[in-house]
Amino acid sequence: MHLSITHKVTPDEKEELLTGLRAFNSRFLDMATFSNDIGVYVRNDEGVMLGGLIGTRKGEWLNIDYLWVSDDVRGSGVGSQLIKAAEDDARRLGCRHSLVDTASFQARPFYEKQGYQLLMSIQDYPHQGMQRHYLTKPL
């Protein structure tokens, strides 16, 4: 047996590890309800992305992994439209809850306006003086 450490995980190494993890998890979970990507995007007439949301379905949960809105349209309701569309699609897929995490300098008040409630915060993450917030919402 050999132990190795790397700071450059290859796609093959990641897939090999995830294959083993999925095999273990499949003994307990319906893996067909996991890892279904949900992407919602807003583009201008020229096709330039002005905002988007990428999430993952994990069982009965929508995990919002990434949400970004361009400064050009921030405050115009685009973020709310992205969230609503993702939540509607997640409901259609059988999700009953949604989870998002955000840093203290990002969008906690925005998510709270969308009905998300703070579940927990981690102090000094990712750096001293910052926090990582985890918020959930029933769908």
Describe this structure in words.
With 139 residues, this protein is of the alpha+beta class. It has 3 helices and 6 strands; from the N terminus they run H-E-E-E-H-E-H-E-E. The protein has helices at residues 11-25, 78-92, 108-113; strands at 34-43, 49-58, 61-69, 97-103, 117-123, 131-138. Strands 1-2-3-4-6-5 form a 6-stranded mixed β-sheet. The longest helix is centred in the N-terminal third of the chain and has 15 residues, at 11-25.
In DSSP terms, counting alpha (H) and pi (I) runs of 4 or more, how many helices? Answer: 3
Span between N and C termini? 46 Å
Compute the gyration radius: what is it?
18 Å
Percent helix range:
25-40%
Low-confidence stretches: none
Q: Please give the number of β-strands.
A: 6
What is the residue-mean pLDDT, rounded to a whole number? Answer: 95
> In order across it, which strands form the biggest sheet?
1-2-3-4-6-5
Strand content: 35-45%
H/E topology pattern = HEEEHEHEE
Sheet with the most strands, sense and barrel status: 6 strands, mixed
Give the CA-based shape. Answer: globular
Summing up helix and strand content along with how strands pair, one would put the structural category as alpha+beta
What distinguishing features does this structure have?
globular, 6 strands, 26% helix, 139 residues, 3 helices, 6-stranded mixed sheet, alpha+beta
